[in-house]
Amino acid sequence: MSDAIEFRDDVTVELVRAQASDSDVLYSARVSTVGEQTLVTDAQATESGELAKRDLGLINFLMRDRHGTPFEHNSMTFYVSAPIFVFREFQRHRMASYNEESGRYRQLRPVFYVPNRDRMLVQEGRPGKYEFFPGTPEQHELVELEIRESSIRSYESYQRMLAAGVAREVARSVLPVNIYSSMYVTMNSRSLMNFLSLRTKRDDSTFPSFPQREIEMVAEKMESFWRELMPVTAEAFDKNGRVAP
Questions:
Q1: Which residue stretches of the chain have pLDDT < 70?
Q2: Disulfide check for 83: which of 59, 90, 113, 149 has CB 3.0–4.6 Å away?
């Protein structure tokens, strides 16, 4: 077969564009009390690049008391490349705009996910009380062997059908969910905080979450970009138990 199979154990997240800052939270919150004056006072804060103590307190107050709409007046667009099974979990979050590459309109590339040796393999417990533990060397070898072999076989079947003139939307039926896809996702900081509260495991969370590791890898990278854009909001998010406002 002409296409070389590629195996990866990571995800890609890039910040494509953003209009997001802590000042966005301030002017949208203060318009309720000072009206058009917010354009003057918060423009000065933006130009100076520094937020006053009262500004920090306002953002923390909004986060603590869950006044969420001021955190919606911003936008971030991310490019994400990850296994399809990650996207199916991601798109359960109905608070973002998505555009994903289509297996109907292009031939999907032979890039497949194989977990590395740090990935927990053994699941124990009942639903809602799962715990994960490291796998043995033999289990890791088995996982890598089986995933690699099944990925190669499925992609060869896919190529044979395409070569025979079968439509892409039909031929893709043999491909496994560990094949990589890509998408653009656009959301505001309130939606992102909701996503992070559910898709990252943190000891300082008021409501613990137990995400699948692969989607947590995406969430961690998105959070890193967001923290650079809105450091005060991110700090307030942590301080208040990582509960989305």
A1: 1-2, 32-50
A2: 113
